[in-house]
## 1
Amino acid sequence: MSETLYPVPADIAAAAYIDDAKYQEMYKASITNPDGFWGEHGKRIDWIKPFTKVKNTSYDPHNVSIKWFEDGTLNVSANCIDRHLETRGDKPAIIWEGDDPSEHKVITYRELYAEVNKFANVLHAMGVKKGDRVTLYLPMIPEAAYAMLACARLGAIHSIVFGGFSPDSLAQRISGCDSKVIVTADEGLRGGRKVPLKANVDKALETLDVDKVVVVRRTGGDVSMTEGRDVWYHEEAERVSDHCEPVEVNAEDPLFILYTSGSTGQPKGVLHTSGGYLVYASMTHQYIFDCKDDDIYWCTADVGWVTGHSYIVYGPLANGATTLMFEGIPSYPSPSRFWDVVDKHKVSIFYTAPTAIRALMGAGVEHVEKTDRSSLRILGSVGEPINPEAWQWFYDHVGNKRCPIVDTWWQTETGGILITPLPGATALKPGSATRPFFGVQPALVDAEGQILEGATEGNLVILDSWPGQMRTVYGDHERFVQTYFSTYKGMYFSGDGCRRDEDGYYWITGRVDDVINVSGHRMGTAEVESALVAHPKVSEAAVVGYPHDLKGQGIYVYVTLMDGEEPSEDLAKELRGWVRQEIGPIASPDLIQFAPGLPKTRSGKIMRRILRKIAEDSFDNLGDTSTLADPAVVEDLIENRQNRA
Ligand code: 6R9
């Protein structure tokens, strides 16, 4: 691993909110006196009734409870819109760039106010009130942000389902939180291709009962509307006013649910609340991207993922920033698209994912070099470990060696970034997320939960709470406790492995549980396995990750067929299609190996360690196989492995 040090550029340090001395001072204050620190920074948002209590949290597995600013009240949408109107009414809040380069739209804060108020009134007319869950299944259009903020205005809880999920996955997430109102669009548009969102909703609702489906018109494509249930947003919007009083909510009232994959079972509904989340999202956004009033900030994520929640919508808008929202994909109509958009809108802060960088790297540097990019000042990366080669390419060619890269480590569960450089404070090492943000106490532990000191490697835990932390798994607090606080008692366990070097820098090495990270999307191997065994010809399945040049990790599937079924190319194709249909295209297996048997212990446990090694094409050192019930299956697996160098 490269350990070249990139010092903070003097001009960046001079102009930044935080330089190294300030970082040290603030970090120390945040750890020695969290109440004092967060009591002060909690004031960065507007409270209707100011809080008098700051931190009230316990990681004791018998009583996990996380509360911040618990007696304060606020409205999140008023913080993201209303409070900016006086000074920033005419400032662009959202710059929307369509899939087709000929389409873009600028929405000022004043316009955002009108749109969100109208959207809130439409939802209210559909019966949505404080505490209700609303499922959003939308493409990257401004209405996605309007709908989120409209829910927040009403005190309702949004649950966004990424548009790449199948009707089955959508149905599971609608019923999981008992949403009675769904917001979708006729179709999405990505890379010139249409995504049948409304048709997917119709399929999802074949077995579910909801009150209303609000349909935003995006492409004008033909969709069927169910009388009494489905309404067009544009028709309803004509009937309502553009003023809706923001509903006062408690700091600990829920803001949103977001389903995410874990190592076991079905996806869990990660619940975030209002006050602490907004304080943390806005503060991290300001300091980590060093975002100033005249910046044009672009995060390329989808609002269907947590990055879109915190760093396209809530963080930037709470700060009164200009946030760019992109409907398309990096390669359409050409691999210059990102950089064309940077030039077109004079983007100064650009936040993306390693998988996109690797794909564009593969397309050739000429697509970058023919663009100007002189507006860029700060670059960012999120979603998976960035390999030093991709880091270097991003730094050299996209940022012309001028722009610091913030490699930001965090999770759906953490609400905001936890480990990251600050542009004006932190010397960079390619591939390292560097140091903790204010209030964050990372530690590395061994398998027994002993805290390891100094330069070492271990499992990454966080020792105490920060305001943006998830509060519970929706409807299943016990699962929350079990998943995050029981492996290592009294600590939040991230599920990631990590190394810490001599300078105290953190290097995330990837998941240590049965979660794989495919193009920055989290996928539970258990979910893919349960989809596969639901196929009538499959008897048993095991899924592991393997290194993939573009995706970071690819999905490697071992299947054992039912007696009498024969392996074939056609069947492999059928299984791929099956998984796409059950979960969504993002879960599509890359490699499928038909195996007469899987390696098991004598007690019947699948030995995934062996399957991982074979999938990695590194089977010389399989470790201890003496506990295998039938050692011969391993030879067959090696013989027929699918990933050959
Ligand atoms: C924000 C987000 C979380 C998992 C996390 C880790 C991986 C995210 C990373 C990173 C190394 C980074 N991850 N950022 N690994 N360096 N900068 O991605 O949330 O979808 O919940 O995924 O992603 O493995 O545990 P989420």
## 2
Amino acid sequence: AKAAGGNRFELADPEADARAITRHGLTTALPTALDRGEFFIEYQPLVHLGDGSVRGAEALVRWLHPQHGVLSPDRFIPLAEHTGLIVPLGRWVLEQSVRQAREWRDVNGGDALGPLRINVNLSPCQLTHPGLVQDTVEILERTGVAPDALCLEVTESALIGADDDLLKPLRRLAEMGVDIALDDFGTGYSNLANLRRLPVSVLKLDRSFTQSMQQFPADPVDLKIVEGIVSLAHSLDLAVTVEGVETGAQAEQLRILGCDTAQGWYYARPGPPERLHELALVDATG
Ligand code: C2E
Ligand code: CA
Ligand code: CA
Ligand code: CA
């Protein structure tokens, strides 16, 4: 950031420059990264708070960049959304994850451990892409995975003020039996009454609520808020998942507050697919 003439930009920020260069480099490398097979997926278990059993996993994409090493999605998902790569990338993540769910099922010998469900994040760009429903149907058919083993996570902010056109594909998927989860719930400004209008069956309570359960006793106002959200969710027949659970104390508080499912480092960090199978197996055999 240097300007010819004037001294407005003289205070160059080397770190900002480095970031801009990296961003530029990433943007250039991104379109071909999918073809080069540089993306991979880690899976983080979703655990039932009542009995501690593993019920499924969330798929989280990573980019193994030849120069920069493993990049977290926060580094490249915004770029992928900006460049449009998110549509083929998102489709790839969906297909890989659903295949993985099929493999867990097969390795487990059918449903012996109960079906492991797979959660996949959807970007707002994928929601408005006309191929979403058909792609999803085809992937489920190709892999032989039942729609109710799949949960698509959409952020609360993507659905704020959503009109019927935007909701239509989600409704179709929900009618087929695919679960829709409202991700990062509680960070946006959505009207709680608005929830009735959305084809969602799961609320994923944002990590900030989990963080506020860190102190013991937790802030009484936070407790009331979570309690209120859980009771509203349950009265609307929605399940509540909490993310970012890092300690046993948080898990216990959230269990007492009535949350259904949890995810976080306390149980497991995101990891390779084999790891999930091990966790589920250990879980089932004691
Ligand atoms: P998210 O959907 O809210 O995913 C949860 C994030 O919290 C993940 O970060 C996960 O690794 C992290 N996390 C899990 N447990 C804990 C914990 O106990 N403590 C803390 N501090 N963090 C925890 P990650 O993997 O870096 O992903 C970041 C975001 O990138 C995701 O947030 C999601 O919005 C997006 N993302 C990831 N994969 C995909 C994808 O395939 N498609 C799209 N569109 N977005 C994706
Ligand atoms: Ca998510
Ligand atoms: Ca989330
Ligand atoms: Ca998030």
